[in-house]
Amino acid sequence: MARKAARTDNETVHLRPDTHRRARVEVEFDEPTLLGALFGQFDSNLVQVENRLGVYIAARGNKIQIEGPEDAVARARETLIGMYKQLEQGRELDSGAIEALISMSAEPTLEGIITGDGGKSPPIMIRTRKKTIVPRSATQVEYMRALTRNDVIFALGPAGTGKTYIAVAQAVSQLMTGSVQRLILSRPAVEAGEKLGFLPGDMKDKVDPYLRPLYDALYDCMPPEQVERRLASGEIEIAPIAFMRGRTLADAFVILDEAQNTTREQMKMFLTRFGQNSRMVVCGDPKQIDLPGGQRMSGLADAVDKLEGVDGIAVTRFSAADVVRHPIVGRIVEAYEGPLSQYDEA
């Protein structure tokens, strides 16, 4: 049945079909000035929660009534409380943030994700000069905790799950606080199926196209003038993995992106660059290997197989459910990871 609504003063009344095993709860919010942002323009935020969870929401003043299947009502309540807390903490509430909260509402730890251990500790977040990053999935919570507790972190999973972005944000945060002196970002210069041909310019010009995603994450976390200044001073270094050979990376936060495209020899070389007061994050998608010559055993898979369980090393595995880009990206990932098509079998 199509959703219909009629507005009278501050009340939105939704017509509801009769169903069995329905529940109704009421949520009251203390700060009226936040309600406009909570509801969204023309109640768009409430409509998003309704459509995703199959509930019906009526708002009157500072109270919201939710009706629908029991489990969906519980999730909607948790989502709305999470949305309100984000606004209380001064964070923006867009459709992506709401989608993330809806996804996390299926997790029993949602309250801990929002407030940090049920309010006993500060919220889980990474602060940079330009923004504050908060987890948008339960796996991101695990990942962000691992980034503060372990020396070497492997982040495995599909595109759009925040593997590299969160690692860069954590690195920028530690660089700003002085807990590390350098930020080193690297990735193998392997073409993703296409042939780029001859690239003009000096070495930096030749490798920059491969490293563009790392630059994008940096500029999203720091003002452009600071990025340029720190690049010029050497505090931030972006280079292909081949440039790591023979070095010891001390007092540094080191990130290797697209690690599935390393050979076993390259991965061993990279990991053994680890120095005092350093942290390494290795990001990659084991299902997107672009190694030349038909090589399918990447250095990433080999390293995880050998090192998982070693003290000081953490492995975080993301799935399509953790994709935090547009929801359709998650559905695309799931479709590609499903049963083989007739073309694959051929």
Report strand order across the widest sheet.
10-9-11-12-8-13
Determine Rg (CA atoms, Å).
Answer: 23 Å
Number of separate structural domains? 2
CATH architect. name of the largest domain: 3-Layer(aba) Sandwich
Helicity, as a percent range: 25-40%
The biggest beta sheet reads: 6 strands, parallel
State the CATH superfamily name of the largest domain: P-loop containing nucleotide triphosphate hydrolases
Low-pLDDT segments, ≥5 res: 1-19, 108-122, 192-196, 341-346
Under CATH, the topology of the largest domain can be stated as Rossmann fold
**Overall pLDDT level:** 78
The SS-based structural class is alpha/beta
Q: End-to-end distance, in Å?
A: 43 Å
CATH class of the largest domain: Alpha Beta
**Structure summary, number of beta strands:** 13
Listing every helix as H and every strand as E from the N terminus to the C terminus, the arrangement reads EEEHHEEHHHEEHEHEHHEEHEHEHH
| Number of H- or I-type helical stretches | 13
InterPro entries: P-loop_NTPase, PhoH, PhoH2-like
Subcellular location: Cytoplasm
Family: Belongs to the PhoH family.
Domain PhoH-like protein: 133-337
